[in-house]
Amino acid sequence: MKSPFAYRPRPRPLQLASPGAAVAYLGAIVVVAFLFSNPLVLLAAGAAAVVAGLLAGARRAVWFAVKMGFALALLIVVVNALVVDRGATVVARLGEWPLLGRVDVTFEALVAGLSSGLRAAVTMVAAAVYSACVDPDRVLRSLRPLARRSALTATLVSRLVPVAAADAGRLRDASRLRGPGAAPVGKAPLARRLLAGSLDRAVDVAATLELRGYSLDAPRARNRRSRSRYDRRFYAVATFVLAAAIAVKALGADDFQAYPTVEIGLAPETLALSALVALSGLAPLRRKTNRRSPVADGTKTSLCGPESSRRQGEREVARV
Amino acid sequence: MSELAIRRGAAPALAVGALSFTYPQGEESALEDRQPALEDVSFEVAPGEFVLLAGRSASGKSTLLKAACGLAPHFHGGEIEGEVRVADLDAIAAGPGELAAAVGYLAQDPETQVVSTTVAAEIELPLEMRGDAPDDRARGVEEVALALAIPHLLDRTVDTLSGGELQRVALAAALVTRPRLILLDEPTSQLDPVAGDELIWLLRRLNEEWGVAVLLAEHRLERCLAAADRVIAMEAGRIAFDGPPTEFLAWARDNDPALETPAARLFSLAGIDPLPIGVRAARQTLRGMGVAHPPNRSSRRVSDPHPQDPVLNARGLWVELDRGDDPRDVLKGVELTVRRGERVALMGRNGAGKSTLLRTAAGLHEPVTGKLSVDSVALLTQNPGDYLVRERVGDELPGEEGMAALGAVGLEDKVDADPRDLSGGERQRLALAIALAGRMEGGNLPGLVALDEPTRGMDHARKGELVKLIGALAGSVDFVTHGVTKATRAAVVVATHDVEFASEFAGRVVLLGDGVVIADGPMEEILSGGWYFATEVARVLDLPGVVTPAQGAAALREEGP
What we know:
Chain A is mostly helical and 320 residues long.
């Protein structure tokens, strides 16, 4: 089964944007999450990442990342509540625990854990959207001139991961299909077999790379500047969000304090920043083009129709 | 020599002189204990020539192709002597990368021949590696995509493609640099008859219109002999025959009948000359003899005189699979009953649902709706190697149940062998024994033995062994030699694309199309009633119920000269 985080080309702005623009945009959301501890700002960043993913068509990736992020956030909240005994408002006294000693769960530790958990969840969702929407081939291509060997390794790994996953699935099926009278397959022999198979596969893939001329010391190929008509939008949104976040941070508006008592600042700057960050999630919105009105002789031009727009977008996937 | 001179045909596309090659210890030739894989091989392929490389398994075909593209010895190591020149480049001195512009190579398994995420990036990669400018790359990708009829695939990711589509993409990546020579190692072995025929005719078109020289290694000669200008037959690393297809058929009849095509065997058995290189030539010869319409014999229906209990009974079976995109119904209400002792060929194009049906019967998939009652099932999947995880046959199959399973497949004398030292056919039988072990209560076979595409990459001789094994499991030949009593015969269901193989083993053919059974009946009836899922003999004679060379020869003898 294909991973929900695997890249799928779609004629949407985020996928059509150059990798640099997409990384800048999603990176800005993550930077905001690391700059601020205020749960309101973090929730806004999370909402932006989720909305961006949904608008880019990465519904499954977002859904899986939200579930995983929620689980991780919950874990962080629980661990923080158990190991941190700061805070004035005790909500539960759990007595003496081995290693931890006396455990008092405080409301403040819960909120502080929630803040850290939210940050991790935002990062996870943004990474999932990146994985599902940014073409790894284009990323590797842009890396190749900078670090040829690293790009080769990354190419091999990026191809071998799905192949190894498929091999593992086949081996798992074969072990289920063994008759009850055959020797059971332990994890160690299965892992050995998978490793040996992966090495064989790696040799095959390396041979293919060799045949494609990967080892050639050919003149470095000039790459088309990976520009798309959406780049400017994503760079602008990233710049605007980052500038606003830094400015608000500099003004000291991130007045969130967990200990000794929780204080969540709701200053106008914080509210404005939260609104701005949340709205930045709309950047991948595809603007609908108006169908040109029928011309006098009754025929229609389809140049600006949604279908031609879709086709143009599809071609851009191949070309950009 | 200048590129222009090469393009004008001044130099052969491939020149091999006194070539000998030995794999390093532990490589593919471990069994032969460093026997040369190629010995004193000499031949030339002219620009624009289509050469078919024939021969049994391990005769040196693949090694010859690897030497021609520089993988041997540059990638695999080993000792090489002699000369290999590709478009006047020394292939032994130059590596595969340097040869990439002059020669394209396509191997059996398309899965490991793609290295990028999207089709467009995959095809563009060789041009990028060569340092071509972006505009040239864009044009190259567009042109090759149009030539191979795959522009609609350019935006897709490679993991969403079918086997046939993936093979075309790999071919496009091999052709995008406009090489003068393309080498293909059994490219149709994983394709259904439709996709396989399309690929061969695509090659012929590239050969005729672009002047690309083709060197094609293939076991299913009937599929490509008519497209070839010349045939080279390999035998134990040496060239045993080199000449035109018609002469090759006469040579095969006299020296290695396993290499005969079904149409040629039909003519041999009927005593007709010359032997035909394809369906069209066979029909022309028959018309010339005034045998345009041999007697229309009624289809021979094979019915079991002792109908047995059903071992598989599917009623309105729906199975949904989710491969990560969207859930898709693969089986859409399958109705099928299989009884003990039946030998069933399950056929259909790639993606029709053959494997899914077998896997559902074996319990790997759960039906979403419908009824499925099934006896004990032993399923051998497409890769027998997946079943082999230990270094001694006896360790895979310990105890009495293990020995009984080994006996059922005729491997009881291989208990101490290392599975890696077994031949391909023996490894397949060992994997089947692993699936059978413990499912043979009291020495009885399980109700259903299922094989998924067991003939991939097999030569005719190995297919013959498999036909015997299937016969033994289904109880139509002497069971005692395999330690199983005739009363315990199993039903054998084989998912296959190979119509000639199906005509040799099957009593019944079930044809699946898009998840439903579209034809189900006696083998002779189904395999003589279509265009693609029909044997070569059926296509030559177009007679209901006549599918094998023996049946065809009998029909022709009835007609008389």
